[in-house]
């Protein structure tokens, strides 16, 4: 290389060797003044790319001596075209988004299976969606929805549909498959990260897209109640009213069976995390008389309450433990 030489440098695609198509891909002047190496900074690009190179433009005379860029690139004569030379950096590198983001507020509350409109973004340094970032969840990045209570049977929720970025953006109606207090993390998968080409010379905190974390809650969409009232006899047409506790025999009373389920929005799937060791709460069940008027023999006053015995309410000490009216 001559003592003094000026060349141009651009960003290029590592696989096609073509200049990256952007108005920001402006040539950088590289000036050697009695130096074998120089540092060039200020490269800027507005899109993501997994593997790029630096493209160098310079001139070469008839004797094979490299000459300044402006000796052949400023005109299009055949003589100048013949002198033009291009070379590329041996090292490849990635241009990645700066960080992940989603418009879920901290401590927000959602319902299982209920569609919610979210916008997932892979942002550049100017907080704009990163062009050409078209990655799908579980390929190079993960969206983990960890349930904070370790006693829950479902420790990780799923989000539907999967996040699939198109030019750094995915806006859609998303839903969650179960409930819980959720710690959500959007982060790259080490070993499959977008900037994998840099894993041999760039530390993780620079190479990886900055992860996004947010905590929120998902609750059941609604409760489903299935109730069955059965008289004591097999024909289901007679119940003997008596003081159940004194008799210590409840077979003569009617049996009311209630099955309460904390449901997903589809009204088919039961939320598995709504159990006493996880997120279930004390729930009140209110019974009311509706429709048919029931009267005592010889009286016109309607029956207004049920007498009942509930073994869950019996403390084993009180005389009428477990009994009540509703």
Brief account:
Strands 1, 2, 3, 4, 5 and 6 form a 6-stranded antiparallel sheet that branches. The chain has helices at residues 78-83, 204-207, 244-247; strands at 4-13, 28-33, 49-60, 66-67, 84-88, 93-95, 99-102, 109-111, 116-123, 141-147, 156-157, 159-160, 169-176, 180-188, 212-219, 222-230, 255-263, 307-309, 323-325. The relative contact order is 0.12.
Task: Describe the protein.
The chain is mostly beta strands and 326 residues long. Helix content is 4%, strand content 35%. The protein is built from three helices and 19 strands. Strands 1, 2, 3, 4, 5 and 6 form a six-stranded antiparallel beta sheet that branches. The protein has a five-stranded mixed beta sheet with strand order 8-15-14-10-11, with no helix packed on it. The longest helix is centred in the N-terminal third of the chain and has 6 residues, at 78-83. It is rod-shaped and about 125 Å long. The termini are far apart.
Give me the secondary-structure category.
mainly beta
The percentage helix is: under 10%
- How would a textbook summarize the main sheet? 6 strands, antiparallel
Low-confidence stretches: none
Oligomer: single chain
Rg over C-alpha atoms, rounded to the nearest angstrom: 36 Å
- In angstroms, what separates the terminal alpha carbons? 98 Å
The strand count comes to: 19
Mean pLDDT: 87
Question: Strand portion, in percent?
Answer: 25-35%
Query: Total helix count?
Result: 3
Molecular shape: rod-shaped
Question: Any descriptors?
Answer:
five-stranded mixed sheet, rod-shaped, six-stranded antiparallel sheet, 3 helices, mainly beta, 19 strands, 4% helix, 326 residues
